[in-house]
């Protein structure tokens, strides 16, 4: 099963200056023996896209920020890695790349097969010369048949230039029904949360144009001052995890809210579990 790479069509962004508005100019044109059939058309100064033989007015931001075209050579290694893993028996597995993050996606028949496929796919990406050079993080987005979606599956929907709305939707999907786990009463992150935080890290790396707030929240048990301090320490710990895995510290803020923003006011075990949470909010709208 070959991964279908997206090839972007290149569009040239031109800045048309007064020098190009030469219609009626007194400057003599160089003599030529060629017969020209072109006509002189005055174009106002400004920014234009030139596509399919036509000039289309555009804004300065669009002219400067056009995404770079992706060549077949640049994406061929992704197809090769996908083919290699498929030939190993995981013909349902695919590799999606955005920025310097590779996400493994697909639906495994059972948990054991998922783990084997994740290991094989991760090794294939990082052992590929192009993968080793271009990928900083491999995210687990593999689902299990009849179970929940893969923890990082939502990252497959991000492109190299995501909007802040897309980034927020991705982080919300990653955290849906999940939470960062800590050791009881302290800020030590549980090993059970490694892949969850890897998925968050991947989203943050792809969404590096925006700032992400890490909000720490506790339940209402314990003293207010203790909960406020604990929530800040846990938010700081999550921030440090992301920084250690490649996210720029300047793109992250950590805020401890303590017990001040509960989702559920009931005094039950279920309510306490809902209120103990880590939230990620994208800023940059």
From TrEMBL:
Protein localization: Cell outer membrane
Q: Which UniProt key words apply to this protein?
A: Cell outer membrane, Membrane, Signal
Q: Where are the transmembrane segments?
A: none
Q: Which Gene3D superfamilies match?
A: OmpA-like domain (3.30.1330.60)
Name the domain of life: Bacteria
Pfam families named among the record's database cross-references = OmpA
Tell me, in one coarse class, where this protein mainly resides.
membrane
Question: InterPro entries in the record, alphabetically?
Answer: Bact_OuterMem_StrucFunc, OMP_bac, OmpA-like, OmpA-like_sf
Q: Does the keyword Membrane apply?
A: yes
- What protein name is recorded for this chain? OmpA-like domain-containing protein
């Amino acid at each position: 099963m070959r991964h279908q790479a997206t090839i972007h069509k290149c569009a040239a962004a031109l800045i048309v200056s007064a020098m190009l508005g030469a219609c009626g100019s007194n400057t003599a044109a160089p003599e030529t023996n060629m017969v020209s059939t072109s006509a002189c058309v005055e174009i106002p100064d400004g920014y234009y896209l030139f596509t399919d033989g036509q000039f289309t007015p555009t804004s300065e931001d669009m002219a400067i920020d056009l995404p770079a075209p992706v060549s077949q050579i640049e994406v061929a290694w992704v197809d090769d890695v996908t083919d290699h893993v498929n030939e190993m028996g995981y013909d349902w597995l695919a590799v999606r790349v955005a920025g310097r993050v590779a996400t493994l996606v697909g639906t495994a028949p059972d948990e054991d097969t998922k783990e084997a496929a994740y290991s094989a796919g991760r090794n294939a990406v990082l052992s590929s010369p192009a993968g080793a050079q271009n990928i900083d993080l491999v995210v687990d987005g593999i689902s299990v048949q009849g179970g929940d979606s893969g923890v990082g599956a939502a990252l497959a929907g991000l492109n190299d230039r995501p909007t802040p709305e897309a980034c927020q939707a991705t982080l919300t999907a990653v955290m849906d029904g999940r939470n960062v786990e800590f050791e009881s009463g302290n800020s030590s992150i549980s090993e059970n949360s490694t892949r969850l935080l890897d998925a968050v890290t991947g989203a943050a790396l792809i969404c590096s144009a925006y700032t992400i707030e890490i909000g720490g929240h506790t339940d209402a048990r314990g003293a207010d001052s203790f909960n406020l301090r604990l929530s800040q320490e846990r938010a700081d710990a999550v921030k440090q995890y992301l920084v250690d895995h490649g996210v720029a510290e300047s793109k992250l803020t950590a805020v401890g809210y303590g017990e001040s923003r509960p989702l559920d006011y009931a005094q039950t075990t279920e309510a306490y579990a809902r209120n103990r949470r880590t939230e990620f909010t994208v800023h940059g709208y």
